[in-house]
Amino acid sequence: MTAVGTDLAANPLSVGMARTVAPEPCAFVIFGASGDLTSRKLLPALYALWHDMLLPARFAVVGVSRGDMDDAAFREKARAAVAEFGRVKPDGESWRAFSECLTYVGGDIGDAQTFERLREHLKKADTERGTAGNRVYYLAVPPSVFPPLIKKLGDAGMVEHAERPYTRVVIEKPFGHDLRSAKALNEELKQTLVEDQVFRMDHYLGKETVQNLFVFRFANSLFEPVWNRNLIDHVQITVAEPIGVEGRGAFYEESGILRDIVQNHMMQLLSLVGMEPPGRFTANEVRDEKVKLLRSVHIPMAEDVERIAVRGQYGPGAIAGKEVVGYRQEPGVAPDSVIETYAALRLEIDNWRWAGVPFFLRAGKRLPKRVTEIAVQFRAVPHLPFAERAARAEPCVLVLRIQPDEGISLRFAAKVPGFRIAVQSVKMDFRYGTSFGVEPPEAYERLILDCLLGDSTLFARADEVEAAWTLMDPILAWWGAHRPGDFPNYEAGTWGPAAAARVFRGENRAWRRP
Ligand code: BG6
């Protein structure tokens, strides 16, 4: 971890930041080594971990993809990627030692021979680099390739089920397209792997502020007693982005924001805010509680969808003063596309803690700014004893800012100085950056390290993914069957369609302006 303008040791808040457990020797195999994910995220994360001495010395990174490259070319490509995208830039001796870990195997992953060659290559790595037969296979390839690729690994005898040497497989979202395909994918994975070997990456769980939700809720006695229907009026979760579909028009046409962001990242946030405290912070105990929460969310019926879900699509507009095109004008998008780039939901949780407390979720592309936050809105006081009209107090709001400007703020009522009782909302604010004075690790660094340590707490389990799809399926089915008549229904650079207020059903609630 890099200190930003401060000495780590000098900041008492930073105590405990360093990792103490080192992963065992291992070969880290990247399928899809010439792709975008490898350049933007995987290689920079691996190098940052290496640089910060969090990887074992006996380590190998083996890139696999179709292109013809030798080790030297792969190393050069890796250096350029880390220089461009890395939090830690390639640095003298440390880069030289890391680049020695990097080797490349070219070949088609549809071809059994590629796997034979890879197997031999990995055996050699075991001898030359001491990787001890341990393997992480990172599938940076399209999801349709997961099942056949994993089967080929199994057929080639490259999957161990023993505790040591271990085999772990990392896959990236989307985990299916709907409940049925997610179940089918889980079934297919089960043919070759056991659940503990599958690491389903949702990079939101690698974010420092998302993990802080656990600590905030379960390491403070102050908040947990009020974290329920007695004092909370409702919760709003927002994932707003000014970016559009960024050249991924064709992907978005198959996906839409409900699948791209709500089903995974937002369901993770919802389950962390709503779950019961686990007995211990272990992978299965934490995930059991998350699944229990997701299963308590009221499953929307077809006839509810119009009342609880609103979709939107951006038209042309301006972001930060710059004109941008509408979704339908993006490359790869149909001129009459009905795919949503905005979604707002009202979810109700049927359990003792949350009955009657609606959770409002919204996600959108081309909104005015980048902000991910969870706002917990408390109830108004039952009675105000002050006579003056100016004494009207806004209810308290606790905002957990996931990004950017990571931190937590609490809005509460205070007396305006003077001879009368006038009340005004003020804010208590905690900021990660200024309090700790260090830059947190990137989500991919944290999650890759956890995978190497065999800790799947921050990875999605099969039943968790299925529980989340169970909630999305009725909405997707209704949206699929009913063409929206009003698309595009929000201008790029605005806070989404006016119809999003429908989820409040005329109650005295409104979307926040983050
Ligand atoms: C990805 C989505 O999973 O998350 C993108 O596919 C989205 O559409 C991104 O932009 C948001 O991630 P972050 O870390 O920038 O909030």
Detailed description of the structure:
This protein is of the alpha/beta class. 33% of the residues lie in helices and 20% in strands. The chain has 14 helices and 18 strands. It has helices spanning 36-51, 71-85, 92-99, 112-129, 146-155, 179-192, 208-218, 249-254, 257-274, 283-296, 305-308, 432-436, 443-452, 462-481; strands at 26-31, 59-65, 102-106, 135-139, 167-172, 198-201, 232-240, 309-312, 314-315, 317-319, 322-324, 342-347, 359-364, 371-378, 397-403, 407-415, 423-431, 490-491. The strands form 4 sheets. It has an 8-stranded mixed beta sheet with strand order 8-12-13-7-14-15-16-17. A 6-stranded parallel beta sheet has the order 3-2-1-4-5-6, sandwiched between helices. A hairpin with a 2-residue loop joins strand 10 and strand 11. Helix 1 (36-51) packs across helix 2 (71-85) and helix 9 (257-274) crosses helix 10. It is globular. The two termini are 30 Å apart. 42% of the residues are buried. Mean pLDDT is 93; it is low at 1-9. 6-O-phosphono-beta-D-glucopyranose (BG6) binds next to helix 9.
| Rg of Cα set | 24 Å
pLDDT < 50 runs, ≥5 residues: 1-9
Largest sheet: 8 strands, mixed
Q: How large is the share of residues in beta strands? A: 15-25%
Span from first to last CA? 30 Å
Mean pLDDT: 93
